[in-house]
Design brief:
The protein has helices at residues 13-23, 34-40, 42-50, 65-78, 91-108, 126-131, 138-151, 164-171, 187-192, 209-214, 224-227, 232-245, and strands at residues 4-7, 29-33, 55-61, 82-86, 114-118, 156-158, 176-179, 219-222. The protein is an alpha/beta fold and 247 residues long. It has a single domain, classed as TIM Barrel (Alpha-Beta Barrel), CATH 3.20.20.70. It has an eight-stranded parallel barrel with strand order 1-2-3-4-5-6-7-8, surrounded by seven helices. Strand 1 (4-7), helix 1 (13-23) and strand 2 form a beta-alpha-beta unit. Helix 4 packs parallel to helix 5 (91-108) and helix 7 runs parallel beside helix 8. The longest helix is centred in the middle third of the chain and has 18 residues, at 91-108. The protein starts with a strand and ends with a helix. The model has no long low-confidence stretch (mean pLDDT 93). The structure holds cytidine-5'-monophosphate. Cytidine-5'-monophosphate binds at residues 7, 9, 33, 121-122, 158, 160, 180-181, 203, 221-225.
């Protein structure tokens, strides 16, 4: 499948519909995060799944195991292809999430969604981590939590481009790694033609699409380089072309 997952970080269901229909099959899937979900609710997820899109529901569940299990079961009912939880919720929560997805999918006779973990938010640096009681260096904490997620039977993690190689090495080839923070290379085309200047600079650790795939990513989350481009479909196609032609 095309590894590009476009981040539908838009305020309304109408914006999401317009973008999804413009992009069509130029991307592999759609990421619906807390902004769109909070404004448009589960019906936009159902609609996108019903239209045949693979949906990554990026709500980063983090709660007691029973509550997370209920949320994961509800997301499975929506038919999402991938969803995520915070690895720092701990092993009982991760196992509850894994089991809820598997059990609900089996009961509905549908494919199990991929359940992946957020390790350390890329907005947290060493100082912020220390302030919440984590003394490990950020990369060590990322690899520690990725290994915990793998040991609990999760399918993969979300990771910044700079973390991908270390996680791939620690967690093996079958582990799914989803990478945001994609800039430059073909992803620069959309930014260069953007209808409004995207705040590309709020991603301070970035790789080009081809570099991220070479580092071991399974899927790339691309937002504004596609969504803010004058021609989002052409921007997505340029990134796909770069991935197919780069060694
Ligand atoms: O527009 P841009 O390409 O920066 O969008 C990246 C997407 O990936 C956004 O939806 C953002 O919330 C998400 N994300 C991220 N960094 C993380 C985790 C998720 O940028 N560490």
């Amino acid at each position: 499948m095309n590894p590009i997952l476009v981040a539908l970080d838009v305020p309304t269901a109408d914006d999401a519909r317009a973008l999804a229909s413009t992009l069509g099959d130029a991307v592999g899937g759609l990421k619906i995060g807390s902004q769109l979900f909070t404004s448009a609710g589960p019906s936009i997820v159902r609609e996108m799944v019903g239209a045949g899109h693979k949906v990554f529901l990026d709500l980063k569940f983090h709660d007691i195991p029973n509550t997370v299990a209920g949320a994961v079961a509800a997301a499975t009912d929506l038919g999402v292809w991938m969803l995520n939880v915070h690895a720092s919720g701990g092993a009982p929560m991760l196992i509850a999430a894994r089991d809820a997805a598997a059990e609900r999918a089996a009961a509905r006779r549908q494919p199990k969604p991929l359940v992946i973990a957020v390790t350390v938010l890329t907005s947290l640096d060493a100082g912020t981590l220390r302030s919440v009681g984590v003394s490990r260096a950020p990369l060590d904490q990322v690899v520690h939590l990725a290994t915990l997620a793998r040991d609990c039977g999760l399918d993969g993690v979300v990771a910044s481009p700079q973390e991908t190689a270390a996680i791939r090495q620690a967690c093996g080839n079958d582990f799914v790694i989803v990478t945001p923070g994609i800039r430059g290379g073909a992803a620069a085309i959309g930014v260069a033609t953007a209808s409004k200047t995207p705040r590309a600079d709020d991603q301070n650790r970035t790789l080009t699409p081809a570099e991220a795939m070479r580092a071991g990513s399974s899927y790339l989350v691309v937002g504004r380089p596609i969504t803010a481009a004058r021609d989002p479909r052409a921007a997505a196609q340029a990134i796909t072309a770069e991935l197919t032609t780069s060694p």
